[in-house]
Write a structure and sequence with these properties.
Distance between the termini: 93 Å
Protein name: Flp family type IVb pilin
Strand content: under 5%
Shape: rod-shaped
Structural class: mainly alpha
Pfam families: Flp_Fap (PF04964)
Radius of gyration: 27 Å
Keywords: Membrane, Transmembrane, Transmembrane helix
Length: 61
């Protein structure tokens, strides 16, 4: 009976689960932010490549 009461009062597992949930939320936020940043960087590099291609085809002054 003491063993069952001891297990019921033990909160270490609950704390570990809470830390795990916090880490998961941080990971989701980081992945979302990195995805948005990646799309923006891709667009920027595409614009630079387009401008460089246009400058390459223009005759020199």
């Amino acid at each position: 009976m003491k063993f069952i009461n001891k297990l019921r009062n033990n909160e270490e597992g609950a704390t570990a689960i809470e830390y795990g949930l916090i880490a998961a939320l941080i990971a989701v936020a980081a992945i979302t932010a990195m995805g948005a940043l990646g799309n923006q960087l891709s667009s920027t590099f595409d614009n630079v490549a387009t401008e460089m291609g246009a400058a390459e085809t223009e005759p020199a002054a």
